[in-house]
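Researcher: Can you fold this with 6UN in place?
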Amino acid sequence: MKKVQHYINGQFIDSVSNEFFDNYNPATNELISKVALGREDEVNAAVQAAKNALTGEWGQMKLNDRIAMMYEIANEIDRRFDDFLEAEALDTGKPYSIARHIDIPRGAANFKVFADTMKAVADEAYQANTPDGKKMFNYSVRKPKGVIAVISPWNLPLLLMTWKVGPAMACGNSVVVKPSQVTPTTTSLLGEVMSKVGVPAGAYNVVQGKGSITGNLLTAHKDIDAITFTGETVTGEMIMKACSVGVRDVSLELGGKNPAIVFADCDMQKAVFETTRSCFSNSGQVCLGTERVYVQREIFDEFVAKLKESASKLKLGIQHDESSDMGPLVSATHRDKVLEYYKKAEAEGANVVLGGGVPKMSGNMKDGYWVEPTIWTGLPETATVVKEEVFGPCCHVSVFDTEEEVIKMANDTKYGLASTIFTENLTKAHRVASQIDSGIVWINSWFLRDLRTPFGGMKGSGIGREGGHHSLEFYTELKNVCIKM
Ligand SMILES: O=C(O)C(=O)/C=C/C=C/O
């Protein structure tokens, strides 16, 4: 049976306690590996290794050499593309067709973009007169923050882990990664990449385990200088509390209840295509995904019919079947949670336009964690599935009449991560975009990413922006030096 180990101080090791937990293929519920369960010994060893690295070869590495190493890591990820593809698909259940175009390419891209950033970033400097008629010169310098804890989620494991490890290491920090217990493997593969490239031991560490055990130990560890987390808002709040001890910085990309606003003057084909993607890609397990769709009355019936037709064409299938459009949910626990929401929607009076249950899967998929792509209409804005993040392949479609009304409805949420707007009137698009309370707005598109842009949520969707030079705000300490001339 395959083992997924910790990667600490450049070595793959089991837990001192020799404890393992089971990891399953979500598409078939087959046991695929035994994963080391990290406790105090492993967390302490990883943090110590990360701390030592800062004063050793890694911390003393020249910026140009570190930048070159970032590109080498990216190239090695590309060289091992198929290994990452197979591992990620097996852990998450997602089709190769998604992981091949989204998850794995971003593994390399997330190192390259921050190597580019470190090459191009300028330091601030000012000249000014002093009260005694002389001059002063001020300049700022950035230093790594230190040991960064990276707590990464299970929906886009490699993408979201490297979205944090890339900038953290490019800025000279060392990292301790705690991946989700249901998607451990690509963090371990990245350890193989680090060893192959010759990254100094301790710069990149992985402690496998469970959030309630390993994650809590890591976030509470006094030698962690900052924590970056992507995941549910309730966990984000707990991590933020842990960061208050020792006044440590935190970067949070949390949940969302993202609206799509479809005006009557939209390009219908584009609106249906992009909304199908944003609702059902990755089985709806994308924090940027759409779960609330608002359609202007004139085109409501047509849009709902076309969205239903588009979603009903999605093929649910096994990872390596190239014709699969959608996989299962990531775990039996998450599947049960989503099905509870499906039941709740019906109990609250939803009109089930499509899905609402469990699909009949054949062969070895019959025991997988499958749910049907689902579309509801007819619920009030106060309904549970209109208010709470389901994180599954489902959406509720509501009708609206005026621009003012839909902006109010779209903003009536505790979240503020992403939104999409469909209209061919770009004056209107920019006007509405400026009034939507979300960190990211896509117009006539979804999940188009320029990695230099500020990325993150407001309100209950998180704190901070990552992307390009914005990431340096979190991954470095900024120091000002003043000279009297
Ligand atoms: O595209 C990104 O950089 C990113 O962070 C995606 C997040 C998706 C969350 O589910």
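Model: Folded with 6UN in place. Residues 237 and 252 are 9 Å apart (CA to CA).
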